[in-house]
Design goal:
disordered N terminus; Glyco_trans_10; about 35% helix; five-stranded parallel beta sheet; Fucosyltransferase; globular; binds 2-acetamido-2-deoxy-beta-D-glucopyranose; single chain; Rossmann fold; six-stranded parallel beta sheet; transmembrane; about 375 residues; disulfide bond; Glyco_tran_10_N
Length: about 375
């Protein structure tokens, strides 16, 4: 605020001075023009800068959203609000208008509905007649195990938007992109060997069983609610990057369900030890030498512990896990803006009739 009030104050001062001069010399025509002329660009400038709405991108009028693709987000996902009209600036996706304003329902090309916010009796879904051109998009980023199966979802949606590769609009939690420059990557300095941050603990999780066995063979530094060691958001990155290895253990094992638990350590320069779908599945998304898979070690679990201890002593072997960083960098999806922009991009380019009638069978099997 202070930044802006200063220049405008001085503008006012100059303006007043000029107007005063104009008043005093008003009767002298030539002098009037002499003073008025130089002041007009100033006046112009002031008039323009008072037009605040001009620079706010998400004020759309009837005319300029006319030929934009309109995507209506029916409910904020988990109640989280976010800056939505960043498709052009952040993702180079043009021609999109994303809104939560339900008065756009009849004009919306797509309606995005987040599964976890749908009421069990479906009573909070749109009720008025669906325009013929409108597609309903089912959005979900949780695994089937952590997603309640709701009756009545078949024959309702047109498109799926999720982490699964076989979704109509697919978006994993992260992805690798080629780097612009080739540079050796130097991992940040480490003062911990194996770390794990976990909030959601259940003894039935595969990862809990694995951990209970694994911890007998190697020292694991644990954090998070599950261990009564809550960490603030700002401490997450420094902790993960100070560990040589991070246990990227998914809460449930499902094809393609590979979350930020993998992509965060990858991007921070920590080697992930993954537990989730098969190694083949991971290798579709990231290079094979970017991570260690628990399945690489059959029985006993000590093999993995021994291997990590070996890597701890052998710097060259350890650094081998960062070779891929010469050519790629990690992109972590920006929830939820990137997803609604992707949905819009899809609608812009594919306008054929489409129904997805067996959602239940597809997602929960
Ligand atoms: C909107 O549509 C008009 C004509 O239908 C076209 O000339 C114009 O380029 C379009 N604007 C955008 C931003 O696509
Ligand atoms: C949408 O159109 C229907 C008629 O087809 C109308 O009953 C409804 O009120 C309209 N909704 C909005 C939000 O304009
Ligand atoms: C979307 O799916 C519904 C339900 O199957 C169907 O009635 C509707 O015609 C579809 N709309 C489009 C635009 O594909």
């Amino acid at each position: 605020m202070n930044y802006f009030s200063k220049p405008s104050k001085s503008f006012h001062k100059i303006l007043r001075l000029v107007l005063l001069s104009v008043f005093i010399l008003g009767c002298i025509v030539t002098a009037f023009f002499m003073y008025y002329k130089p002041s007009s660009p100033l006046l112009n400038h002031l008039l323009q800068s008072s037009d605040c709405t001009k620079n706010i991108p998400h004020v759309y009028s009837e005319t300029n959203y006319k030929n934009m693709t309109i995507v209506l987000l029916w409910m904020w996902p988990f109640g989280q609000t976010y800056e939505m009209n960043v498709c052009s600036s952040a993702f180079n996706i043009e021609g999109c208008f994303i809104t939560v304003d339900r008065k756009f329902y009849n004009k919306s090309d797509g309606v995005v509905i987040h599964h976890r916010d749908i009421a069990g009796d479906l009573s909070n879904l749109p009720k008025s007649q669906r325009p013929w051109f409108q597609k309903w998009i089912w959005m979900n980023w949780e695994s089937p195990r952590h997603t309640a199966r709701l009756p009545g979802l078949n024959n309702l949606f047109n498109l799926t938007l999720s982490y699964r590769r076989d979704s109509d609009i697919k978006m994993p939690y992260g992805f690798l992109v080629t780097a612009n420059t080739v540079e050796d990557f130097v991992p940040p300095s480490k003062d911990k060997l194996v770390c794990w941050i976990v909030s959601n603990w259940s003894p039935n999780h595969v990862r809990a069983k694995y951990y209970n066995e694994f911890k007998n063979h190697i020292n694991i530094q644990t954090f998070g609610r599950a261990f009564n060691k809550h960490i603030a958001d700002k401490d997450y990155n420094p902790i993960v990057s100070s560990c040589k290895f991070y246990l990227a253990f998914e809460n449930s094992v499902h094809e393609d369900y590979i979350t930020e638990k993998l992509y965060n350590p990858l991007s921070l320069g920590t080697v992930p030890v993954v537990l989730g779908p098969t190694r083949e599945n991971y290798e579709i998304f990231v290079p094979r030498d970017a991570f260690i898979h628990v399945d690489d070690f059959k029985t006993p679990k000590e093999l993995l512990a021994d291997y990590l201890l070996l890597l701890d002593k052998n710097e060259e072997l350890y650094l081998g896990y960062f070779k891929w960083r010469r050519h790629f960098k990690v992109n972590i999806v920006k929830f939820w803006a990137e997803l609604t922009c992707k949905a819009c991009d899809y609608l812009r380019h594919k306008n054929e009739y489409k129904a997805f009638n067996n959602l239940n069978k597809w997602f929960w099997g």
